Fold:
Amino acid sequence: MLKHNLIAGEWVAGTPSPNINPSDTADVIGEYHQAEPADVGRAIAAAQDALGPWSRGPLQQRADILDRGGAEILQRLDELADLLAREEGKTLREARGEVTRAGHIFRFFAGEVVRQSGQHLDSIRPGVEIDITREPVGVVSLITPWNFPIAIPAWKIAPALAYGNTVVFKPADLTPGCAWALAEMLHRAGLPAGVFNLVMGRGSKLGSALAGPGVDAVSFTGSDGVGRGILRAGAEHGFKVQLEMGGKNPLVVLADADLDLAADCALDGAFHATGQRCTASSRLIVEDSVHDAFVDRLKEKMARQVVGDARAGDTTIGPVVDDRQLQSNLEHLARAQAEGATLAAGGERLRRTTNGFYQAPALLTDTTEHMHINQDEVFGPVASVIRVTGFDEALVVANGVRFGLAAGICTTSLKHASRFRRDAQAGMVMVNLPTAGVDYHVPFGGRKGSSHGPREQGSYAAEFYTTVKTAYVRP
Structure:
């Protein structure tokens, strides 16, 4: 079935491109039309035309549309989860969790529509009053990755619309199915023409138009290289920028930790969702006295994992998203071993009854903090273990990368947990929990090379999707 782009309230054809199931490359999910840069220009113009009426329209209209969108996502949970698992490779359990989260995000921001507030202050000058209000930032380009093909679009689209902005949305070219389904639901929920526009295609082709003249803000989640390019474009063209650009997240395991819990946290954080999460636990920093016992426990748990078709009931780890990502994972493993790391378990490409991009979860030991495997984001089911002498060294190693998204620690020591929460150079800290897994109503984001601009999610989203105006009035 052909799936078109949505521009100015109309479904617009482009060049069809197949959407391939990574569990079975013979399974074509659908043909999704690729937009051209000129289509992006038309979408931006439509968003500009729709901005005034939408931003000044009834608040209840906005709230109702977002609530209807969220309700339909939840009503179609099984259908959308199956689509997500089929096109991205998450297991059905993980896909159901992501779809549920997307529905809750829309419903949360339906409430935020009517919770917007300002301030009224007295001036230091007699007879003058001050009103501080928030206004929509304007036309917003939203560029999302393939690893969370419905949740990340939801946490960008919902606040953008809730705060009165208009949207041009480009999903990842590997996962257009969930994006198209979301666009179709929002279109039917009653969004006026031009308020929300969908343009599908490769970022290398559409990126300059999406991050160029005519937009007031760009929110991007993806690679740090592309993010830096958007930041430069924002400085040139004067638009607001929000970037989420990955992580190299540590999970520290101290000698006093519950090792079974620690191994569970590592297994979940490093390998579930096929390790394709920016919050994945890619560096396992383990105190020397429990290093071997921890590695043994983790290897035992890894051996019980079932790598297979994302929609099979017994699968615990689905396929890698495509062949290019799989080859990148294998290259990272080969380089790590060439630098002296030991492949303690897994890592090989697997063959199943269908032709898919399957890889056994990989555990590397005998690594050092400066190896490439411990500095570069892999984005696959790969974790490396770094041996340390104690908490102080663990903290230094944890902070010794250019990223700062999430950081975790497993310990029964309140003293060490408290110090780690304070001193970890990360935007999110987990204690006795996997580094991956966050709530939708609280801020998401990192420090250093992981993030730029205001936080995403929750009420903190207003910092990006609105601009503050201070008005001085003499009555």
